[in-house]
Design a protein that fits this description.
This protein has 156 residues and is mostly helical. The protein is built from 7 helices and no strands.
Length: 156
């Protein structure tokens, strides 16, 4: 992989702070019911930036979560193709790195949501079933409840 440009190389602690703050900023925009088109664009930009900053300094689970969040941002603005791409990347990272539980369940949730946005109801239903099965194995009750709550918001 090419060397990261020095203009975006920062100390690891600052990089973690940027990645985390951008991730949280995306959440504030995802939760906004009256988001403007410009805010939607910023949400997507921030999700990509957060993922970029996590790349060099964190473990693969953060990479998977970054891909999940990018997919969610695109699905929220009904852009199916990039939502599908990043949902699939999330699942690939989980499979390649043997990441299970919460993150695997959310990889399936992302695929269900993205396929729903794409109008592919059979695939959306398949991945929703996968998410529910993986979710049933999540040990933390709060995490399991969060997943099942999010699954209730899928397009049907």
């Amino acid at each position: 992989m090419p060397t990261r440009p020095t203009s975006v190389s920062v100390e690891p602690e600052l990089q973690k702070k940027l990645a985390s703050e951008l991730f949280n900023y995306v959440w504030t925009l995802l939760e906004r019911p009256d988001r403007s088109e410009r805010e939607s664009d910023r949400m997507i930009d921030a999700a990509h930036a957060s993922r970029f900053f996590w790349e060099a300094i964190s473990e693969p689970v953060k990479h998977a979560r970054g891909e999940w969040q990018i997919s969610r941002a695109y699905a929220t603005v009904e852009r199916a193709e990039p939502a599908l791409y990043h949902a699939q990347r999330c699942l690939e990272i989980c499979e390649d790195q043997r990441i299970g539980g919460f993150d695997l369940a959310y990889a399936y949730e992302a695929l269900a949501r993205a396929h729903g946005v794409a109008g592919e109801s059979d695939k959306a239903s398949r991945y929703e079933r996968e998410a529910r099965e993986a979710g049933a194995r999540i040990t933390e009750q709060d995490d399991r409840d969060l997943l099942f709550s999010d699954l209730e918001t899928l397009s049907r």
